[in-house]
Write a structure and sequence with these properties.
- The chain has 282 residues and is mostly helical.
- The chain folds into two domains: 6-66, no CATH class; 71-276, MetI-like (MetI-like fold, Orthogonal Bundle), CATH 1.10.3720.
- Helix content is 72%, strand content 0%.
- Helix 10 (199-214) crosses helix 14.
- The protein is globular and about 75 Å long.
């Protein structure tokens, strides 16, 4: 049922694994290496067709300097932060409360409400593009950071509630019963008994949602336009012109855009892994 550990396989398979693992890792990182290589090339290399060769000159400081000081990239980064952080806080907070209600209380219609929460996750985003855009237009939320935040919170809360509800149902229920016997109010049980036990799950979910929202491109293009509201994923297209694209600047901007979620993961790595593996062993 489960894969055989590498240490228990034959010597031939162990050697093959040790050889293939670095090769597959290089293949997996190849696009990122290519983008990093593009970001330090001069524009003349792309004109002459030197796409994959060694850069004719090292232009990292010039390219990244232009990205930061001669474009709207700082504004796009700020927009992404303004969109992502409130979305993470809102989605995690709402899902924690919804997960507590659905995971602790037993009432008629519990499963129906739970299914309604997660039903949106099964609908392709492309189907919702036109009605969601029309809705934001009718509410005067089109091309605003607030509209994008509210939309992301609404859509991410379903997945987050699924995550939180299942996590809470795995917690020791006698702790909640003991708190009720002591006469503690339900909201205090949530804040002071359940919520501290949910810290690993909250951290793991925050990292996941931060990455999802920061890297979103589809809705950033559909619901925003221009530097006033566009996040960094959509703002990178600013380096495209009518006749050609500034690939060296687009690559530098892509590297800059990828740094925050990477930093977020490494800062929260311990809590992220703990949240995903909690309950895996007893």
């Amino acid at each position: 049922m489960f894969p055989t550990p590498i240490a228990k396989t034959s010597r031939t398979w162990q050697i093959s694994y040790q050889v293939l693992l670095p090769v597959m890792l290089i293949i997996w990182l190849l696009p990122l290496i290519a983008v990093a290589n593009f970001s330090i090339k001069p524009e003349s290399d792309f004109v002459s067709g030197n796409y994959w060769g060694i850069p004719s000159s090292f232009e990292a400081f010039s390219n990244y300097g232009r990205v930061f000081f001669e474009s709207n990239m700082p504004r796009y980064l700020w927009n992404s932060l303004f969109i992502t952080i409130p979305t993470v806080i809102g989605a995690v907070a709402l899902s924690a409360m919804a997960g507590f209600a659905l995971g602790v209380y037993k009432f008629k219609g519990n499963l129906l409400i739970f299914f309604i929460f997660i039903a949106g996750n099964f609908v392709p985003f492309q189907i919702l593009m036109v009605p969601v855009r029309d809705l934001t237009l009718s509410l005067n939320l089109y091309d605003t950071k607030t509209g994008l935040v509210l939309f992301h919170i609404a859509f991410q809360t379903g997945f987050c509630t699924l995550f939180m509800r299942n996590f809470i149902r795995a917690l020791p229920f006698p702790l909640i019963e003991a708190a009720r016997v002591e006469g503690i109010a339900e909201w205090r049980i949530f804040l002071f008994v359940v919520l501290p036990l949910m810290k690993p799950a909250l951290a793991a979910l925050a990292v996941l949602i931060f990455t999802f929202i920061w890297n979103d491109y589809f809705w950033a293009v559909v619901l925003t336009q221009g530097p006033d509201a566009q996040p960094v994923t959509a703002g990178i297209t600013e380096f495209n012109s009518q006749y050609r694209a500034a690939y060296h600047l687009m690559s530098a901007g892509s590297i800059v855009a990828a740094l925050p979620p990477v930093a977020m993961f490494f800062l929260m790595q311990k809590h992220f892994i703990a949240g995903l593996t909690l309950g895996a062993v007893k």
